[in-house]
Amino acid sequence: MSFKDITAEDYSPKSFVVRVNSLSEIKDNHKNALKEFGGKWNTHLRGGAGWIFPNSKRNELDKYINEGKITSDSSPQVDDVLEKIEKILKSHGELLQQILQTLQEADEPEPPKSVRLLKRG
Predict the structure, then answer these.
(1) Whole-structure pTM value
(2) Phi and psi of 8, rounded to 5°?
(3) Structural domain harbouring 85
């Protein structure tokens, strides 16, 4: 089953837009799925309102439009989390390494302190 009420078209070199037929009941049916894929609703786009997406989501959205469902191999939530983790590691990798090292050092036991015993006299 494919969706004939949804169209995807290039918008800019980095993004594409998904537009849904103007019937409100159809829009509502797709709203949650398009949000899951990370789409942002924008009423001020060239050509009218629509859901704007980065080009990296194009294959997933094409599958959704053509197959009529979110397929198991296109899990937008997992992909988004992995993408965010990758960005964090790239931009803050050195800082994370320092934090890890500090935590590991904090877990190491301190060497015993020498105790000096005094004679009672």
Answers:
(1) 0.51
(2) -120, 135
(3) 75-108
